[in-house]
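Posted in: Structural Biology > Protein-Ligand Complexes

Title: Requesting predicted complex, S-adenosylmethionine in pocket

I'd be grateful if someone could produce the 3D structure tokens for the following input. Sequence and ligand are given below.
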Amino acid sequence: MTDPLIPAVLSFRDNGTPFSPLYDDIYHSAVGALEQAHYVFLRGNALPERWHGRRVFTVLETGFGMGINFLMTWAAWRADSSRCERLHFVSTEKHPFALADLRRAYAAILSDPAIAALADTLASEWPMLVPGTHRLEFDEGRVVLTLVFADAQQSLPNLRLRADAFYLDGFAPAKNPELWTPAVFKSLARLAGEGATFATYSSAGDIKRADAGRLRVQKGGRLRLETRDAGRPFRAALARAPS
Ligand SMILES: C[S@@+](CC[C@H](N)C(=O)[O-])C[C@H]1O[C@@H](n2cnc3c(N)ncnc32)[C@H](O)[C@@H]1O
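-- Reply #1 --
Done. Output follows.
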């Protein structure tokens, strides 16, 4: 039998930054959740340019949290006249927020009215906290959010998809080493599509210290994910780690 989910506990630091007592780490940088999503995750994956002219573009995220990265990606897709036909955003989450806490978090951190409106739409579709996969559709089904409420260590090996961009956002390696193991990176490498890229808020130094197996830090802080599997073509996923 599957274990019941343990929901996230919503807390705030004195400066208003949402914080997880469970992991002793912050959900977003003090600079601001929206800015971090834009600079680290969208720009880090060269979005929106990379989805131009594509029929489907798939993002895979470790750690949905409050879904700020999803909301910013959805907003960027909406604002882009050259957007891909379909955006598929797949995100794993071991400790999802209860709906009331999700709404409380949005009320506290979202000052941009356009993002707040998308957040409200997401909250109105928020699934029950039941382990497993929940598929949500927005914008006439052109934006699909697949939420996998489970431990990524177990769920990633079972996913079937080709990711174009990875958002590695499962807290810092020092605070949450379970999401930075060779096994997790082996799963991510298996899911990487041709030319996939990834971005993370964690610094190159953090990653060097983590036992991230196939994720390697190169000169200049660039990250490289080794994706050679027996009998399968080599695919490189590169992005710059913030220093
Ligand atoms: C930094 S927060 C993510 C912020 C989020 N991406 C956003 O845009 O709001 C990290 C998230 O990773 C989740 N997490 C930690 N360990 C996990 C695991 N093993 N599997 C899945 N999710 C995990 C945490 O519960 C937390 O919600």
